[in-house]
Amino acid sequence: MAVKIVFATGNQDKMREIREIMADLDAEILSMKEAGIQAQIVEDGTSFEENAVIKAKAVAEFTDSIVLADDSGLEIDYLNREPGIYSARYLGEDTPYEIKNRTLLERLAGVPKEQRSARFVCAVAAVLPDKKVLVTRQTMEGYIGDAPEGENGFGYDPIFYLEEFGCSSASLAPEQKNAVSHRGKALRAMKEQL
User: Fold this and answer.
1) Burial 25-45 (b: 16+ CB within 10 A, else e)
2) Does pLDDT of 1 surpass 60?
3) 3: confidence class by pLDDT, cuts 50, 70, 90
4) H or E stretch including 177?
5) Which residues pair with 133 in a beta bridge?
6) Which residues contact 34 (CB under 8 A, 6 or more apart)?
C-alpha cells in the first residue's frame, strides 16, 4: 500500500513541481483540497521554518497521513532581504506576480548587477503520524535581472537569474529547475529524512 502524503498547499503550480520532485517515492501525494481538508492557517511565524511548521501542524490536525508543508520566498539583499517571508503576500494577498515583479524591478532600477544578489529560500516541514516534526531548509542563489524572461516558471521565477545558466529560472526546463531549485533541494533533503 502506497504511503499517503498530504501537502499543505492549494497552489497547483507548486503541486506539479512537488509531484515531479517526489516522483520516485512510493507515495500518493495529495494537496489539502484533494484530501478534503480545509484548515484555516494563520502564517504568523517570523521565519520560513516557523511558517512551514505552522502549516504542517494545522493540516496534521485533520489527518493521520504524513503532512508536508513548505514555506518559500525570495530574499533580495539590496532590499534588506525583502520580500522574504512575505513573498506570497507582497503588495497584498491577490496582487498578480506581474505587478510584484515589475515593482521589484522598479525598486532596483539603476542598481548594478553585483548588488542585485538574491536567493530563493525553501523550508519544508513534515509532521509524521506520531506527530514528530522534521524540518529542512535549502536555498538557490542568483540575482535579480533587468527584465522578466521565460515562460516556464511561476511567481518570481521570471526576474530571478542564475549565473551558471545565464538565464532566469523561468527559462529553465522543469527537470533542470527542479535539479537546482530551493524547493527541489529541500524536498530531496526531506525525502532522505523520511
Assistant:
1) eebebbbbeebebeeeeebeb
2) no
3) confident
4) helix 174-180
5) 127
6) none
Structural domains in the chain, sorted by start: 3-193 (3.90.950.10)
What values do phi and psi take at 58, rounded to 5?
-60, -45
Nearest to 108 by CA among 83, 136, 134: 83
- Catalytic site residue from 71, 77, 130, 146: 71
Q: Is the previous residue joined to 83 through a cis bond, with omega within 30 degrees of 0?
A: yes
Specify the 3-state DSSP secondary structure of 29: strand
CA distance 106 to 60: 41
Other beta carbons within 10 angstroms of residue 3's beta carbon come to 13
94 is catalytic: no
- Are 65 and 35 spatial neighbours (Cβ–Cβ below 8 Å)? yes
Residue with cell 530531496: 188
pLDDT value at residue 194: 87
Concatenating the DSSP letter of every residue in 48-77 gives HHHHHHHHHHHHHTT-SSEEEEEEEEEEEG
Cβ of 85: how many Cβ atoms within 10 Å?
23
Q: For residues 108 and 85, give the distance between their C-alpha atoms in angstroms, rounded to a whole number.
A: 19
One-letter amino acid of 164: E
